Amino acid sequence: MGSMAEQNDHQVAFGIDIGGSGIKGAPVDLATGEFAADRLRIPTPDKSTPEAVVEVLAELVGSFDLPDDAPIGVAFPAPLDHGVVRFIANLHKSWKGVDLPALVREATGHEVVAVNDADAAGVGEDRYGAAAGKDGVVLMATLGTGIGSALLVDGVLVPNTELGHLEIDGHDAETKASEAARDREDLSWEKWAKRLQRYFSTVEMLLSPDLIVVGGGVSKHHKKFLPLLDLRAEIVPATLRNRAGIVGAASLAARPH
Asked: Residue 127: inside a domain, yes or no?
């Protein structure tokens, strides 16, 4: 990998995706968006304090033979204000106010960029996945426990959008239109699609996206619900699946805009 980096500065960047149950990382070939080595996953510490999590990150990074100048991108499950954690739901509450890039830089010696996990996935899809080569306004919506969102304009990220929390018909949108809501209420694809139609129509009215990319585990069943939606924008399934966060974070570390 050293020689790869020498041929082209920062051809390899390291991406890390921090989740509530696992922390995953891999070096990413920035020319292709492919992993340059197999991904490694380490369980998230039970007491997921900044110190405990950063110890895992250092172990992850140390498991690969990375060039010294390879930057690190971290996808994190919370909104970040220029790398500082604003509030936290999925990890230890002591994360609030932590400067994540500074902490990881100190532990690893590499340059670090940190980004919200939904934003990282959106950047991955925009640069290497379902939205690659598309100009204009791209919205990625991840349908899962809630609805995560990422908004990009001509490839530039508008960070920390929380479009799953739009209030629609008096409800927090994700309580009605997420994959968790479909499961909880045992909705048919048709009934769920009506909720998605209401959600995406509202987002379309507010933002006029040129392309909507739908991610989350349920996107593998896209043929059952995407054709039922009637929108102005083209709407397509995500293609990077669970690689998107690692790939997007690594890509942002090498090329922030």
From this structure: no
Give dist(CA 143, CA 238) in Å, integer. Answer: 11
Would you say 95 and 170 are in contact if contact means Cβ atoms under 8 Å apart?
no
Number of structural domains (the chain) is: 2
Residue 126 belongs to a domain? no
Q: What is the pLDDT of residues 219-228, one digit of tens each?
A: 999 999 999 9
Mean pLDDT of the chain: 94
Q: What is the pLDDT of residue 11?
A: 92
Return the closest-CA partner of residue 76 out of 66, 85, 68: 85
Return the bridge partners of 151, or none. 139, 158
Domain with residue 72: its CATH number is: 3.30.420.40
Which structural domain, as residue segments, surrounds residue 50? 2-120+243-254
